[in-house]
Write a structure and sequence with these properties.
308 residues; alpha+beta; eight-stranded mixed beta sheet; globular
Length: 308
């Protein structure tokens, strides 16, 4: 057990490889991100302050790494010292420093700090919503612009693992994650968990990382990107459909985390999710146990296409 646990404050990025950067560029643009190419690397960012959210290197298709955000440079250097690894300059958009760790299943975990925030884009809704309890749009009409969803930030990543208790212990010891919902299998054994960042009294996403030991085995499951709102999600769904991309699951509303979701597959089959209206929690909200049924259930919308 480490003497001191660093508390990750968010997920930072996901990193892939693909043989055709132009094709990936077209997909990510239709998905709602802005892109830039540097040599044989494609970076994609959203409307938020993160300098990049998605990174693709030229190569055989695959998932390479998950990025986590350290709270500051001091915490990054302390973690590097405890893990016996070097701190290096990032050399990527936003600069900053980074260390790379390898988890029990061989996933590369890139921990970043000191990045320069991007300016971001000005976001605004087309008009207020009128619901049965609150009429905020008065003497005006609502018109939604056609185009891709507007990705704001990376919300979470889901990874399949070989031994959930082993992986859970590894991530919690190094990054201070709090379990929001632990998934219990039919035999009473924990098989996965939605884990959130420990930000004390600051509200944070219900989960930034979900680890699951399931029938699909070790491998990347999906990465989820927060978009502006429900209108933005449905407009993006329409845009991606007309562009000919492959839908995966949605639209619906999850039970665990409560997000309205819409999943798509990139040109090499990796699932990326649009989501909005997720639950926010603080450290004092604690943890609970949940069933596989709750994991797969939707409050409304399309049923899950397969087990996790």
């Amino acid at each position: 057990m480490l003497e001191r646990t660093m508390r990750a404050i968010d997920v930072a990025h996901v990193r892939f490889s693909a043989p055709d950067l132009d094709l990936m560029d077209r997909f990510l643009t239709d998905f709602g991100m802005q892109t830039e190419t540097s040599g044989d690397v494609l970076y994609a960012h959203g409307a938020g302050p993160a300098p990049y959210l998605h990174m693709t290197e030229r190569g055989e298709p695959g998932f390479i790494a998950l990025g986590l955000q350290a709270p500051d440079m001091v915490a990054l250097h302390e973690l590097a010292k405890r893990e016996g690894v070097a701190v290096i300059e990032s050399g990527r958009p936003g600069g900053g420093s980074m260390i790379t760790l390898t988890d029990p299943d061989g996933y590369l975990i890139e921990v970043v700090a000191g990045q320069i925030a991007a300016t971001g884009s000005r976001l605004s809704r087309s008009a207020d919503w009128n619901d049965a309890l609150d009429k905020r749009r008065l003497r005006g009409v609502k018109r939604v612009n056609h185009g891709p969803s507007r990705v704001v930030r990376l919300g979470h990543c889901v990874l399949g693992v070989a031994d959930f208790p082993r992986s859970e212990a590894w991530y919690r010891a190094r990054f201070g994650f709090i379990i929001s919902d632990e998934i219990m299998g039919p035999d009473g054994r924990a098989m996965g968990a939605f884990m959130r960042c420990d930000r004390g009294d600051t509200p944070t996403d219900h989960h930034s990382l979900f680890l699951v030991e399931g029938p699909r085995g070790v491998g990347f499951n999906h990465a989820a990107f927060e978009i502006l709102d429900a209108d933005d999600l449905f407009v993006g769904h329409d845009w991606l459909t007309k562009a000919g991309w492959q839908p995966h699951w949605g639209v619906g509303r999850h039970v665990l985390g409560s997000q309205i979701f819409d999943y798509w597959r990139d040109p090499w089959g990796h699932a990326l999710e649009h989501w909005t209206d997720g639950d926010l929690m603080i450290a004092a909200d604690g943890s609970r146990q949940a069933t596989i049924g709750e994991l797969l259930a939707v409050q409304w919308g399309h049923a899950a296409p397969h087990p996790p």
